[in-house]
Design a protein that fits this description.
Elements (H helix, E strand, L loop, with lengths): L3 H16 L13 H19 L1 H6 L4 H11 L13 H9 L1 H6 L3 H16 L19 E3 L3 E6 L19 E7 L6 E6 L1 H12 L4 H11 L7 H15 L3 E3 L2
Antiparallel strand pairs: 1-5, 2-3, 3-4
Length: 248
């Protein structure tokens, strides 16, 4: 267990590294302290740049200033450096109203890019037990666990960053998964109906048809008979990509 004096020294050094305000540290050479701050800052900036390459192209003015404000004022919680960029999302949402007003899709874009990092780095998850046959509407199914849905206000998953400034708010959904064979993270633009269907099927033990009917009812599509055949096509597409399986 660390002594109180050691903890206090570490805290003082970390605070200095963040804000650059000179402080007295017993045994430290003041002329060397700026090098610690520079090195730590470079690590943080590199992690943010690596996690958010598209966001940098979208935020054409103010990205470096945002990094500096985040570094100077945010007390990071994750001990793993690769997890640290996730904290930028909440920081921006809580503290950067002016920047969000200038770049309305900023939060969605940060969430979208972080999803790729998280899926790529997440621990391996076992596939649930499943049958080999392709699922039909009457079947109960299981889903690939290394898969995530993202509900968005802006179409950041299918729009070049240079055109996001003109993007209109709406309801969008992105499906992302990590390929078991390659480890690559893939994305698919899907409708809100399909997104709701996946949320229902993942939380309730229903057949494809029952989950689809529940999603259709929620969205006011019950009288549109086309949703059923469209849903079968969607399930076939997921099955081809090894994202949905017939239950045993």
């Amino acid at each position: 267990m660390l002594r109180k004096s050691t903890i206090e020294a570490q805290s003082a050094l970390s605070t200095y590294c963040r804000n650059g305000i000179e402080t007295e540290l017993e045994g430290a050479k003041l002329d060397r302290l700026p090098h610690y701050r520079r090195l730590v800052y470079n690590v943080v900036v590199n992690a943010l740049n690596t996690a958010y390459p598209i966001t940098q192209k979208y935020v054409t003015e103010g990205w470096e200033d945002l990094q500096h404000r985040f570094f100077s004022s945010h007390y990071c919680q994750h001990p793993q450096i690769w997890r640290m960029p996730e904290e930028l999302i909440a920081y921006v949402a809580e503290n950067e109203a002016e920047l969000i007003a200038k770049y309305p899709a900023l939060i969605d874009l940060l969430r979208f890019e972080w999803q790729e990092v998280f899926l790529f780095m997440m621990p391996d998850l076992e596939l649930p037990k499943h049958g080999d046959a392709a699922p039909n509407l009457g079947d109960k199914v299981v889903l690939e666990p290394e898969m995530q849905l993202l509900i968005l206000t802006y179409p950041v998953h299918k729009t070049h960053p240079s055109k996001l400034i003109d993007a209109q708010p709406g309801q969008y959904a992105s499906l992302a998964w990590r390929e078991r064979e390659t480890g690559k993270v893939q994305f698919m633009d899907i409708s809100i109906f399909y997104a709701l269907f996946l949320e229902v099927i993942s939380s309730e033990e229903l057949s494809v048809q029952q989950a689809g009917a529940k999603a259709a009812l929620h969205l006011g599509l019950s009288n549109d008979e086309s949703w059923s055949s469209n849903l079968q096509h969607f399930v076939n597409k997921l099955q081809e990509k090894r994202l949905i399986f017939k239950s045993e």
